[in-house]
Write a structure and sequence with these properties.
182 residues, alpha+beta, ten-stranded antiparallel sheet, 36% strand
Length: 182
Amino acid sequence: MVEPTVANVVGTINFQREIALDALADTFSQRDEITDVTYEPGENHWLQTHFAPDDTYVPFYRSGKCSIVGGNSVEHFYEVAERVNNVMRDILELEYEPQVEISNIVATWDTGSPISLEALTIELGMTQTEYEPEQFPALMYRGEDYVILVFSSGKVLCTGLSNLDDVTDAIEDMVSRLQAVV
C-alpha cells in the first residue's frame, strides 16, 4: 500500500458574513494568537495573517471567508481551523459553527527508481496525459478530479483532491500503471 507524504493542505472557513478587514487588522494586531498582520488594501484585497504557534498563513477576505494554507497534515489543518475559529468566535461573537472545508491536498510519493516518461506517456495514453519536456520536466496526468505529476526521478505529486483516501487511491492507481514501464 502506498502511503503518500502530505506536503500541503489548503482549505477555507466561511463565517457567513462580510468582514471589515481594517477593523479586523486592528483587533488582530493586539492578539497574541496572531504573530503577523499585514493589511495593505492598495496592494491586496485581503488581510494577511499568521497564526501561532507555527505561523500558519491565514488570509482573510471581505466576503467573510478565510483560507488556511500550509497545513502539513489533515489533522494540522483542522487544528489551525479550530484556533482561527476560537479567535473569530470571540471577535465576531458567533453563535454558530463556521463552515470548515478542505479544498486541496498536495501529496507526494517516491517510487524509488527512475521512470521513462516517454514510455509512461504511451502507457497512459494521450487523452489524459501531457508531456512536453521542453516546457516542463514532468509528465502531467489529468484524472477526473485531480492532477498527478510524475518526474523522471520517480517522484510523484498529486493535487486537486480534498480527501486523503482519494489521494492515496489516485497515487496507488498511478503506481500500478508505473509498474508496466519500470
